[in-house]
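anyone seen this seq b4? input:
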Amino acid sequence: MSPAPDDLAALRREIDSIDEQLHGLLMRRGDVVAKIGRRKAVDGEVTFRPAREAQLLRGLVARHHGALSNAAIVRIWREIIAASIRIQGNLTVGCCPIEGHGVALNLAHGHFGLNTDVVRFETASHVISAVHRGEVSVGLVPLPQDADVPGWWGDIRDKSELYAVARLPWFASPADAAAAGVGALAVARGLPEESGEDRSMLMFSCSSPVSRARVGEACAAEGLAPVSQAVTSDPHEVDQLLHVVEVEGFVGAEDARIRAVAAELDASNTRLLGAFARPLAASGAVGAK
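predicted toks r here
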């Protein structure tokens, strides 16, 4: 039985009241964010905090229930987070084709907000250079894959201040299943931060006889469980291969395990490429306890 007109009117008045309360809270949140931004400007802190964002969103999804989907909650808060970053300072995102420019643009807007400025570059190398020169705040680059020629990880090798700090998309809804495997890494200045549920990416330059299996075994022996690997030539060394290994857990730039693996592999160059919050997969269409 449909609600009576008077009942509908009462429900709509309730929605109006809720909207006013939501708007009031958003304005209060904006004021607090502005104060934080002024403090960060004094302390020289970075505005982009992907680990903090992941912790916030995980908490929201964990406590969420009701008719609104988890995907809707994440989408709403991603826009709130993006707006908050813009209050604190300018944020520009550089991207290159990732399965075409359209996918890269969707990933950028999906994570950093629809109103965030996105600058297009033709290659991932150009994106890395733009981040390094400070032309953009964050750069989106493809996930490492096997290839005869090195990718952006060869360009970032000697840029010690650049790291991959987030993996996109962070939240994949059931509707995104068709795009499974298509993603990007966000590269920015500054050391990655630990979110509590992370993965890390390591790079080793090894002589050609060193196999993927040996690299994986060396990492596992140090408690670094491999998730994926990619191998390309090393643009800086003859007859050397760059092994890129994604491992479970957070690994700091000075972690002794990186040096231990490098020693086992007799690697001539090694580097933490980055660390980032493990993407969260949607468990259902709606928030459910």
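The longest helix spans residues 5-43. The longest strand covers residues 198-207. kinda curious what u guys think
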